[in-house]
Amino acid sequence: MTRGVGPLAMALGILLLAGCSADGAPAPSVTGTAQDGAAADDLRPVVAPGTTAATGAFVDTAAVTGSVSIRVNDAGIFELVVTDLVVPDSSAVQFTLTADALSPDEQCLDSDWRFGLGQAEQGHDPSVPLVFPIGGSDGIGQGDLSFIREVVVTRAASGGAPDKACPIPLLSHAPLAWSTPDMRPGLDVVDSGPVTGAMGTVALDGDDPTAYTVAQGDTLAAVADRFGIALDDLFYLNPRRSPNPEDSQAFTGEVLNLSRTNR
């Protein structure tokens, strides 16, 4: 099957709004959870309930003020917490996560991966924190959300036709600073050479594989085997490509990331 180069289907979830306050955060803990596949002897850190994993603040104070954090609640669920939110015209606004880093003056959200969370109603009280569940350890990003770069705030949908030039105009956005540990400490990508089902080409940084271009007839399982990693690790390195039935195939010309840095 053939598709264009780059990440595949856009992930979009709409989750319900819940109210809760943001608390302090203990350091992440390490459990005895072993990694699958090539790194099975290594323990994966687990971010402990109550931990604040990322923080940020909205950049355009003329349009929106407030701060954001991503924390783990008592049930082990990642959630976005928005505090001190002020929208000057008191309009309803929508919150979305994106994997792209945006310039400070960005005016339009144009991303191949975005995750809608929910909205603050018109006239929201700034003293009331907003909490939006995101997912657990088996959710998006294979339980490591650090590939998410920004929290975006837009006006809530009004029902009118979107502007084709800018279908998602931004009010503001908050770059995230992550403080989570290395969630795959034993993940080591090594190219063992072309094999049946993994005959594509490899981009290198020195001797380190950084990307793989899928050849016709490749399978994701064979690609993972070629680089000595579990299939789960391949999805971890490519968090924009959700591990679901739609994305179970490798597509000719698709570029898969192999670099932990570029995740």
Task: Compile the SSE list and pairings.
Elements: E1 29-34, E2 43-46, E3 52-57, E4 65-72, E5 78-86, E6 93-98, E7 114-120, E8 130-135, E9 150-155, E10 170-175, E11 177-178, E12 201-205, E13 208-213, H1 220-226, H2 231-237, E14 255-257
Antiparallel strand pairs: 1-2, 3-4, 3-11, 4-5, 5-8, 6-7, 6-9, 9-10, 12-13, 13-14
What's a quick, concise take on this entry?
It contains 2 helices and 14 strands. By secondary structure, the protein is mostly beta strands.
How many beta strands in the DSSP annotation? 14
Number of helices: 2
Largest sheet: 5 strands, antiparallel
Parts with pLDDT < 50 across at least 5 consecutive residues: 1-41
Q: How are the strands ordered across the major sheet? A: 8-5-4-3-11
Helical percent range?
Answer: under 10%
Distance between the termini: 25 Å
Q: How do the SSEs run, as a string of H and E? A: EEEEEEEEEEEEEHHE
Q: What's the average pLDDT? A: 84
Report on the architecture of this protein:
The relative contact order is 0.21. The radius of gyration is 20 Å and the shape is globular. It is built from 2 helices and 14 strands; from the N terminus they run βββββββββββββααβ. The protein has 263 residues and is mainly beta.
Structure characteristics:
single chain; 263 residues; mainly beta; five-stranded antiparallel beta sheet; four-stranded antiparallel beta sheet; 14 strands; 5% helix; disordered N terminus
